[in-house]
Amino acid sequence: MEQAEIGIFGGTGIYDSGLLSESKEITVDTPFGKTSDSITVGIFKGKKVAFMPRHGRKHTIPPHLINFRANIWAFKEMGIKRIIAPSAVGSLQERLKPGDLVLPSQFIDFTKSRKSSFFEEEKVIHISVADPFCPELQSAAIKAVDNLHLKIHRDCTYVCIEGPRFSTRAESKFYKKVIGADIIGMTLVPECQLAREAQMCYVSISTVTDYDVWAEKPVTAKEVIETLTKNIETTKKILTLLPDFIPPQRKCSCEKALTEAQF
Questions:
Q1: What's the pLDDT score for residue 15?
Q2: Cα–Cα 20 to 30 A to 228, which of 99, 119, 187, 246?
Q3: In this structure, are residues 261 and 125 in contact, taking their beta carbons and an 8 Å threshold?
Q4: Number of compact structural domains in the chain
């Protein structure tokens, strides 16, 4: 089995990292079926890095049909301990403008039909996601962004919806005014909680593509792609720098997530 240290899930608009040398494509069989695509493994700044586009290379997999368990399992089988996950989101707050970067620290789950655990038969696992993102990776992301003299909004809440449709006006206003969330997307859950079950570190770096429909302007897929296209290079610059700030050894609690999770 090909091994790697860091895994990257490419979100909407990022289908090829373009960062890896000596790269090769591999497939990993999992007990949960096929992964979103083949995995590109290569060297980046002396580290072995794996890249997988979560929607497939040609964006053929809608968010509610992504095989999140297979994707996380494959990375785990490769020995990956840290996952960097860029994604596209809508804004639920005026201050978060299209093109802005956001580092979520919490999520609210409004998904409906996704397989959200590896443990369904032999064990009952109650994983803690009180703080769902790795503090070491969040710190590394902040340092990378600061190094690029960019701004990133911190301490934000991501509401994850089922998709593939966008929200109604009523739903959007509910998420904004009643729930008080900051950004909205379709892929964070269960990806991040499965990573926690697998005792892997995980960080989400979100790019705002639009104001959600609370702003009285219907969201379109075309608008999302146009904004993402403008910001792909920024995301790649962050991905380029981020590994420099990841400590060699993990001192976070992510690797011990199952210790107190079962009866």
A1: 47
A2: 246
A3: yes
A4: 1
Q: Is residue 243 part of a domain?
A: yes
Question: Which of these, 56, 69, 48, lies nearest to 14 by C-alpha position?
Answer: 56
The parent domain of residue 187 ranges over 6-256
Cα–Cα distance between 121 and 6 in angstroms, integer? 30
- Which residue is associated with the tokens 């993990």? 250
d(CA 94, CA 223): 17
For 87-134, what is each residue's pLDDT tens digit?
Answer: 999 999 999 999 999 999 999 999 999 999 999 887 889 999 999 999
How far apart are alpha carbons 23 and 5 in whole angstroms?
14
Contacts of residue 253, defined as CB under 8 A and 6 or more positions apart, other chains included, come to none
pLDDT tens by residue, 21-62 = 888 999 999 999 999 999 999 998 889 999 999 999 888 999
**Is position 21 within any domain?**
yes
* Segment 168-193, tens digit of pLDDT: 999 999 999 999 999 999 999 999 99
Confirm whether 262 is domain-assigned.
Answer: no
Provide the CATH number for the domain around residue 158.
3.40.50.1580
Let me know if residue 242 belongs to a domain.
Answer: yes
Residue 152 clears pLDDT 70, i.e. is over it: yes
The catalytic residue positions are: 210, 212
Retrieve residue 167's tokens.
Answer: 């929200």
182 close to 211: Cβ distance less than 8 angstroms: no
Cα–Cα–Cα angle for 211, 148, 91, rounded to 5 degrees: 10
